TrEMBL record:
Zinc-ribbon domain location: 5-25
Keywords carried by this UniProt record: Membrane, Transmembrane, Transmembrane helix
Record-given protein name: Zinc-ribbon domain-containing protein
Residues annotated as transmembrane: 44-64
Length: 191
């Protein structure tokens, strides 16, 4: 059995898929039209690009909140403060003592204060350490529009402070450091 090509009229076998003379396809147009429409005119590239964009956005959304996952210190919320001054006084007891303290405005603190400490260190003009005080942040901080006092350090030797360094620590690691020159006019026993 044979059939004739509708385009050129040539006789071809019944099971032929296309005409050997003119290349006419005997397959039904509906069977491949859906596949051809996706691959024609570069539509496949648009489909691939759309899939890549969706996958890329999903990856960014999952990892975008943690830019450095291997560094746990960067995951901690930072404390932002402004040192407003250092004050001090002396005592009139039998043995003379001198106390220094730092005042600061806390601009930003984490929601959970657990694990945060404040280390306040006082130095003289030769950068020699006078002394330091370490406190928990939740013991120092409360919501206030005014400077908060912390870092109370008492000594029996007359100190001559030059600058103070405040270190914010999270689980024993320093995450923020602030240094401020001390105005000695604000310290009672030096005037």
């Amino acid at each position: 059995m044979s059939k004739s090509c509708p385009k050129c009229g040539k006789e071809v076998p019944d099971d032929a898929k296309f005409c050997m003379d003119c290349g006419y396809s005997f397959q039904k147009a509906g069977a491949n039209s859906e596949v051809n429409s996706i691959f024609s005119n570069g539509k496949i590239f648009l489909v691939i690009i759309a899939i890549v964009v969706i996958v890329g956005l999903a990856v960014i959304a999952m990892t975008g909140n943690n830019p450095t996952p291997n560094n746990p210190v960067d995951d901690a919320e930072h404390v932002d403060l402004t040192i407003t001054g250092v004050g001090g006084w002396d005592s009139d007891d039998d043995k003379m003592s001198y106390t220094l303290y730092t005042e600061a405005i806390f601009n930003k603190v984490p929601d959970k204060l657990d694990g945060y400490n404040i280390k306040t260190t006082y130095y003289d003009s030769k950068d020699a350490k006078i002394g330091h005080e370490t406190e928990t942040l939740d013991n120092v901080y409360y919501d206030s529009y005014y400077p908060l006092s912390f870092g109370y350090y008492t000594t029996y030797k007359l100190p001559d402070p030059d600058h103070v360094t405040v270190e914010i620590m999270k689980d024993g690691k320093v995450i923020d450091t602030y240094t401020e020159k001390i105005d000695t006019n604000k310290i009672d026993y030096l005037n």
